[in-house]
Amino acid sequence: MNFYVLIKSSWRSLSSSKTRSLLTTLGVIIGVATVITMVSIVDGINKYVYSTLSVLGTKSVYIQKYKWLITGRRRREFRKWARYPDFTLQDVEFIRSLTFIKDATAYQNVLPSIPVHYRDKYTDASLVGSDYAGYRVLNEDLEEGRWFTYTDVKEHRRVCIIGYEVKDVLFGKAHPIGRTVRIGRHSYLVIGVLKKKGATFGNSGDNVVYIPITTTKMYARTWRSALWGSLSIAAVFQDDVPLNKGIELLRMALRKRRHLSFDQEDNFFINTQEQIVSTYKKITGGIYIAMIAIASLALLVGGIGIMNIMLVSVTERTREIGIRMAVGARRRDILLQFLVESNILTLTGGVIGVIVGFLLAALISLLTPLKSSVSLWSVLVGVVFSMLVGIFFGMYPANKASKLDPVEALRYE
Q1: Which of the residues 87, 224, 339, 389 has the least number of beta carbons within 10 Å of its own beta carbon?
Q2: Which residues contact 65 (CB under 8 A, 6 or more apart)?
Q3: DSSP per-residue letters across 267-304
């Protein structure tokens, strides 16, 4: 039998009961739509996370007394880490002196929120301390003005660099450089404005004020509390030093500096963006598994529905099958016809599922902060799996139809 004629005949047969055919494919539509929607959302989040982390630099490391934790905080471990010795500015100079280090800077998250005033206007901003190398290592770009100099840091000068959002609230379109703002109870001269960065993981990167690292201690006394974060060090390895090798060299240098014996564990952490990526992959891996389970269940239900409707179709068309065999149709022609019909059903469901998945992903992107990114491989996977469902669940009804006895089939009423 001509394959084109076979497809045309199968389509005509399914079109004769459109409602039944559409309802039969619902399971496949739901399964494929789930795959497309979930994959597009996760891919969109992945691109956002990787683009955000790329700003940190692939060879940047962060030397701190605490380990980065994303999936939860373990109180016992934090109490243990809190007893580790703090890093000092002398440690920063030591790290800068290492031959495999390209650059290093000290920074400190002083307070998560502090009032910043200019005349009758004010806003709350996070307060961060940094030294003269901060803009190079922390990838901070200036819209206007300058960064701290070595003299600013050494002489504890009260100068500051404000984020774009702080500048917008306090000064509007006015020129902020050379103006004096009050941060908490202290006055600072504005020497720079950061370029607009937007939000990172839900936190605004523009609502920040930088001050010299040497002037941060006064805020512990001012607010009568411990600083929000202890001093941290960001470092970048030389271009010819691989990340893993650089981390190990740095770890050994710090152990030696802190006089740790071979049987003592590290009392510091070298954090990298790879830790965030690794943890994030574990989280999204769980989402993918859940997505596959939901989609598989929907496809299973859809496949059973298709097998059921094809068995009904075989029973309803028993006399037709007998007539076809009587005029020369071979068993494989009957088998192929019913397999094509089941595949047309599932393929139609797969295409509709892809369209529904596209629409759902676009709707979620429109109504929520989550940005979808539909990939070609997810579409191909959805369509291919729908075809495999058609072959697998259509095989039994097709085989049953091909094995009917022509004489008995002609007698069937």
Answers
A1: 224
A2: 81, 82, 84, 85, 86, 87, 230, 267, 268, 269
A3: SSEEE-HHHHHHHHHHHHHHHHHHHHHHHHHHHHHHHH
- Rounded distance, CA 385 to CA 302, Å? 12
* Contact of 61 with 235, CB cutoff 8 Å: yes
d(CA 279, CA 208): 27
Q: Angle of helix 318-326 relative to helix 273-316, nearest 10 degrees?
A: 80
- SS3 sequence of 94-155: HHHHCCCEEEEEEEEEEEEEEEEEECCEEEEEEEEEECCCHHHHCCCCEEEECCCCHHHHHC
CA distances from residue 156 to 95, 103, 218, 223 in whole angstroms, order as listed: 22, 22, 11, 19
Given pLDDT bands bounded at 50, 70 and 90, which one contains residue 224?
very low
Question: What is the CB neighbour count within 10 angstroms for residue 21?
Answer: 19
Instruction: Identify the sign of the CA torsion 54, 37, 279, 125.
Output: positive
Query: For 225-266, how does the pLDDT look when each residue is reduced to its tens digit (9 = 90+)?
Result: 444 457 889 999 998 888 889 999 999 999 999 998 888 899
Cα separation of 214 and 261, whole Å? Answer: 32
- Which residues on neighbouring strands pair with residue 199, listed in sequence order? 204
CA–CA gap between residue 338 and residue 15 (Å, rounded): 14
Which tokens sit at 126? 């996070």
DSSP letter string over 37-98?
HHHHHHHHHHHHHHHHHHTT-TTEEEEESS---SS---HHHHHHHHTSPPP-HHHHHHHHHS
Identify the pLDDT of residue 115. 92
Q: What is the pLDDT of residues 157-209, one digit of tens each?
A: 999 999 999 999 999 888 999 999 999 888 999 999 999 876 655 566 788 99
Cβ atoms 247, 270 nearer than 8 A: yes
Closest CA to 385 of 353, 362, 408, 410: 353
Distance CA 259, CA 254 (A): 8
Phi, psi of 19 (to 5 degrees): -60, -45
